[in-house]
Amino acid sequence: MGEMQEIRTGRHCAFAMHVHLVFVTKFRHKVFTDTRLRRMEEIMRSVCTDFECELVEFNDEDNHIHLLGKFPSKVAVTKLFDSLKGVSSRRLCQEFPDLVRHYWRANKLWSASYFVGTVGGAPLSVVKEYIEQQNRPV
């Protein structure tokens, strides 16, 4: 494995599970400002904590975000994803009411489209570097 990954333990198991998530805004509207993104990261970290997950990396572009998370084997990735998506959409739209003008029909921040990838044996430093570079101009 090239790089030593932290192995977590449960009562009867040991695991090292990492996932890369990408959320895309509905209609790919470019709605993220620095203030909104800082709040989004706080919300995402809070939801991850509720699931006993750790948000390792958070990065963004103006119409989507990248997350790298470590999660326990008892957590279904789809449940974590749905909660991150639902809670962040609801809270951000409540806290920034001007977002609603972009979503007059559905009043939902996120598109139904998303990406979830397990990191597998890739060194976390490589995945983190990839995510960090997503908002840099080419």
Automatic annotation (TrEMBL):
Q: Which InterPro entries match?
A: Transposase_17, Transposase_17_sf
Boundaries of every Transposase IS200-like domain copy: 14-134
Matching Pfam families: Y1_Tnp (PF01797)
User: Domain of life of the organism in this record?
Assistant: Bacteria
SMART domains given for it? Y1_Tnp
- PANTHER family associated with the record: TRANSPOSASE FOR INSERTION SEQUENCE ELEMENT IS200
The name this protein goes by in its record: IS200/IS605 family transposase
Q: Name the source organism.
A: Streptomyces justiciae
